[in-house]
Request: fold
Amino acid sequence: MGDTTTLFRALSQLRASWVARGWSWDRRFECVASTLIFEDGPRAMQLVSTALPERWTSKTLAQAPHAVQEVATATGGVRDDQILFASAEAPLIAYGLWWPWGGESTNISVRVGLAGRVGYEDQLTLRELFGTLED
Reply:
């Protein structure tokens, strides 16, 4: 996924197939976010893995590309039950944060954002793709 057209096509397919209600803009991390119930987790995991095939956990993060490690640092790290997904290493990457939460992990938050050389147009395209321009 070296070029932005391919990157945004993969994100568009993720949005089109998504299992939960919708997406919102997360101002804290400047990414889009969606919450789903635990039962939708396996299908959602498959969709995220298809769009963002690189997968990093708390145990493997030290071997991740620098841009991925920066995302982890900026978002509070990766706990044992969390996963940081990413597109292939390139000047602009997309990432996905998989965060289970709630009593016995009954919900999962998924955040999708951009890292690396992110321009204003890139952020605008991301927000437009996920329908969060008004947030």
Notes: Strands lie at 24-26, 31-37, 54-56, 83-86, 92-101, 107-116. The mean pLDDT is 95.
